[in-house]
Amino acid sequence: MRYGVEAAEPGGRRVGVVASFDFTRRAELSRWVPPEVTCALAFTRRVAYEDNWQLVSRLSRPGVLTEPLGELRRTAGGLPEAVAYLCTACSFADGVDGEAALREEMAAQGVRQALTTSGAVTAALRAVGARRVAVVHPYQAPVDRYLAGYLEATGFEVAGRTALGLDAVDDVYGVRTGQVGDAVAAGDRPGADAVFISCTALPTYDVIPALEDRLGKPVISANQATVWALLRAVGSRARGSGQRLLEHC
Hints:
Low-confidence stretches: 1-10
Largest sheet: 5 strands, mixed
Radius of gyration: 17 Å
Strand order of the largest sheet: 1-3-2-4-5
Distance between the termini: 33 Å
Shape: globular
Structural class: alpha/beta
Number of helices: 10
Helix content: 25-40%
Oligomer: single chain
Strand content: 15-25%
Number of strands: 9
């Protein structure tokens, strides 16, 4: 298992992230974290899979959190004040009850403030006043339908779903910022209050401000929402110029 801790100023707050074993956006994630906050990072054990649904369904089981939480506890000098399970599809694959079960498992293992990416996204959408949401994602069926179902079950109307059109699960690791921007511009809907970019594997930090200016509405990404919620839980604020969500603390 890989593990890492970002540097922080003395006396700063501590948060933790459990990411899926295939998470590759650590450098981007750290750009949202202010220097006074320590962010500890641990990864789930690798799982075998043949398709997108099999991957996320196996990573949606609460038991996958046991080992990385133990790693955080041992290596970071005890569990941080708040911990998030950083995986969008893994936290919506089993619906609202499945998302709650993941948080309950973290709490049972001693996490004081337990969050998931899907839970953070719904909180972020509410914070910016969104009710109708256009969704952009890299998933293959049936994962995209489960995403829509989760958003609808948590009180949102899905105005449209736009896939990046990837041929294989692993293609997501090579997606570039420009592809994300083009997909969001194409996937926006006139009646949508916001656009949600799903999947923690997608690069979004640099594209959000330009998209919000172009579309005239909030653009929420999975990684952005997770860090925003995680820092909010410990009384801190995420960094990012021109990102509407980050105005809400």
